[in-house]
Amino acid sequence: MNTLVIQNLNLVYANQHQALRNVNLEIGNGMFGLLGRNGAGKSSLMKTITTLQKPTSGNILFNGIDVVKNPLEIKKHLGFLPQDFGVYPKVNAYDLLHHIAILKGIKDASQSKNQILNLLEKVNLQEFSKKEVHTFSGGMKQRFGVAQALLGNPKIIIVDEPTAGLDPEERNRFNTLLSEISEEVIVVLSTHLVEDVRNLCSEMAIMDQGEILQKGKPKEMLVQLQGKIWSKKIDKNELVNYQSQYEIISHQLIEKEMHITVFSNTAINGFEVIKPSLEHVYFHCLHAKTLVS
Ligand SMILES: Nc1ncnc2c1ncn2[C@@H]1O[C@H](COP(=O)(O)OP(=O)(O)OP(=O)(O)O)[C@@H](O)[C@H]1O
């Protein structure tokens, strides 16, 4: 079992913007979802875990070793799929993986060749090994990104917003691949898509303005909202009125009719109770934060 322990992590950028505020997390093998809107601090946390940048204070322990002091300890076990995965133009998939294998310290030529061929098969790109990577579709590039992240048999894989820009079919294929590889390694998935977390992750954290607002198992978070989510169809002109009275966690126009979803510990006249979803957990969590601050 691998472990990633993050303790009291703070990050203040040179312009004095505090991107991480006292972050504490414990992550084991499997898929961990880090959910937050744009600017929440997810990439800042990912880059700090991968040691691309140093935190202002706090600790990161990978399998018990302090990686801020010993960055190599995580780097040699790390696969990283960053948000903007740049590729060199005019280089085919096989050659680019070969180049990355050398950068990762895989020196043995036959070992490198075997790994590359296996990985191309795993991500279903074996037919395209001689095709230039910059000509790949978005989904193919992301799968190529997974292949490069898996080179060298990492114990921890960090993926930052991996499904942005993928069509639904590519997203499904990509997500299936991620969940297959997560059984024996840690996969940290940063995303603003609740759906990806719901489908894939057994543990999650919700982040906003550099802080972890809530963490745990999605299933348990859903149980906590049982019997507290209420829905009603209203006239859209009444929305402001309802907003002043209730904690509206979402409103949606469905076939020109306004449906509101409200958090309430007790029954509300005229509303029907509905089954909580992870979207409700997320929006309630963000809303509760706005009420406190
Ligand atoms: N190098 C930097 N210097 C100063 N501020 C930064 C730097 N990088 C990020 N920020 C700021 O820190 C905050 C968190 O950014 P970060 O990229 O970590 O968020 P995010 O959750 O990954 O969002 P996104 O999905 O949009 O990338 C933002 O307000 C951003 O503008």
Q: What does this molecule look like?
A:
- Keywords: ATP-binding, Nucleotide-binding, Transport.
- InterPro entries: AAA+_ATPase, ABC_transporter-like_ATP-bd, ABC_transporter-like_CS, P-loop_NTPase.
- It comes from Pedobacter chitinilyticus.
- This is ABC transporter ATP-binding protein.
- Belongs to the ABC transporter superfamily.
- With about 290 residues, the chain is α/β, with parallel strands linked by helices.
- It has two domains: about 5-220, Rossmann fold, CATH 3.40.50.300; about 225-275.
- About 35% of the residues lie in helices and about 30% in strands.
- It contains ten helices and 14 strands.
- It has helices at about 40-50, 70-75, 95-105, 110-120, 140-150, 170-180, 195-200, 220-225, 240-245, 280-290; strands spanning about 5-10, 20-30, 30-35, 55-60, 65, 80, 155-160, 185-190, 205-210, 210-215, 230-235, 245-255, 255-265, 270-275.
- A six-stranded mixed sheet has the order 6-7-8-3-9-10, sandwiched between helices. The chain has a four-stranded antiparallel sheet with strand order 2-1-4-5.
- Helix 3 (about 95-105) crosses helix 4 (about 110-120).
- The longest helix has 15 residues, at about 280-290.
- Adenosine-5'-triphosphate binds near residues 38, 41, 44 and 161.
